[in-house]
């Protein structure tokens, strides 16, 4: 089983992903772990913009220089993630996981969303920043994630059509989100 988690900033994606990995005794891969694994396998330089989540303007510049169009249509996520994870069971946060592993019958793709003000409050506490700075972090991070996902997949980030389950974490909290995901896994018989 592979669980992919896409999330808006401030929706506790890492905490929820780690809790699911612990519950199901499978590895957890966030951005840092994916980058580390790609470097260990000598693949990071093959897809540095993808693994490193480079800003869209840098990706577009690189593509323009290479003569490519401005959409990847899922080729890079599928290849880059397959090269480092293969058929391993795991939890993957970000990296267009819902698209990269869509071909697997045992994939559960999750999108975490929430009220922008509540997400900013969480970021304010987590990073000990001002409310204004936290709101800016949420806005900028969401924009970067949306641009990154849309560029690499040609799909609208956060559109329920591309995920198995979408959860408003600001309404149900971390524990509620975990219960909903676990119930979905049990109901689908993926395990």
UniProtKB/TrEMBL annotation:
It comes from the Bacteria. GO terms for molecular function: kinase activity. Pfam families: Cytidylate_kin2. InterPro entries: P-loop_NTPase. Keywords: Kinase, Transferase. This is Cytidylate kinase-like family protein. It comes from Lachnospira eligens.
